[in-house]
Design goal:
This protein has 7 helices and 9 strands; from the N terminus they run αααβββαβββαβαβαβ. By secondary structure, the protein is of the alpha/beta class. It has 2 domains: 80 residues, no CATH class; 166 residues, 60s Ribosomal Protein L30, Chain: A.
Length: 305
């Protein structure tokens, strides 16, 4: 009887071991061989205890219960492993912000236009032909008087010095010239000699004394080679205008010839006749009539020489 019990117990133990092996095989898939070895020892101990109790009914049902228990533990171990494996720290999220490039709108620079300075309107006096009225230099026994307009102060001083240097007498210069920037530097200077020798009545002949007066002009033109001269012939108011006009033309031509003979190029000289239309005086005494029988010079280029 005891042998049968022992035989039954042995069979029960073998079935329990097979069940444990099966459970270990399942658990090994999840937790590995180490867990299976540990669980086998535990199951073996449990099976021996139950066999010693001598309950065949219990022994008959143990394999199923033990297998369920082992499977549960294996499941718990697998759950633990899954939890451990599932504890994954999410990789930090890197946000890449594309650089924003702002393109500045093109800048258009307006072209700067510099307007040419407006030309000043002429304010000086003009002759009937539109040319500037010349500066007037009157030479007398008591002084030299300058009237008219010049472009700048330097021109005023220059003409004052020339007048002083070319006067027959050591007299002061009354410089009444005004400054007008619109006056061209080529403006003429009209020379009026009140003390020079005159032509004889009705004649264009140049006397010795008269020639000496003309030599002063020759000297100036030789010193200033860029200066040109206009010779204007005059007559007094005696006689008819046609005869006086021709007489004034003959006098102007005689002066030009004299200067050319004394070395002045004819290209620098010109002449014009005005007859009795530009009198210095309306008196009809001998001295006054003599003043009107004359020639005058308009010198060009004195300011730029």
């Amino acid at each position: 009887m005891q042998e049968r019990d022992h035989g039954a117990t042995g069979r029960a133990r073998r079935r329990t071991l097979r069940t444990v092996v099966t459970a270990c095989t399942l658990a090994a898939v999840v937790v590995g061989a180490a867990s299976c070895s540990s669980d086998s020892k535990s199951s073996d101990t449990t099976g021996a205890a139950r066999a010693t109790a001598g309950s065949s009914a219990t022994a008959g049902s143990s394999p199923s219960g033990s297998a369920a228990t082992s499977t549960t533990r294996a499941g718990s171990a697998a759950s633990s492993t899954s939890t451990a494996g599932g504890s994954t720290t999410p990789a930090p999220t890197t946000s890449t912000i594309a650089a924003t490039t702002t393109t500045a709108p093109p800048t258009t620079v307006a072209a700067t236009t510099t307007a040419a300075p407006a030309e000043l309107a002429p304010t000086y006096s003009t002759l009937p032909d539109g040319s500037p009225a010349p500066i007037i230099a009157v030479f007398n026994t008591d002084g030299v008087t300058l009237t008219g307009a010049v472009p700048d102060e330097a021109s005023k001083e220059k003409l004052g010095a020339l007048a002083k240097a070319n006067s027959k007498f050591d007299v002061p210069v009354n410089n009444l010239l005004t400054i007008d920037p619109t006056v061209p530097t080529g403006i003429g200077v009209r020379v009026v000699e009140l003390t020079s020798a005159r032509f004889p009545t009705g004649s264009s002949k140049i006397s010795g004394a008269h020639g000496a007066e003309l030599d002063r002009v020759v000297t100036v033109m030789n010193a200033l080679p860029n200066v040109t001269a206009l010779v204007i012939g005059h007559s007094d108011q005696v006689g008819n205008s046609a005869s006086n006009f021709q007489l004034s033309a003959d006098r102007a031509a005689a002066v030009v010839n004299y200067m050319v003979f004394n070395g002045i190029s004819p290209e620098r000289l010109s002449s014009r006749a005005v007859g009795d239309t530009d009198l210095l005086t309306l008196n009809d005494d001998a001295a006054s009539l003599a003043l009107n029988r004359r020639t005058e010079f308009v010198l060009y280029g004195l300011l730029s020489a």
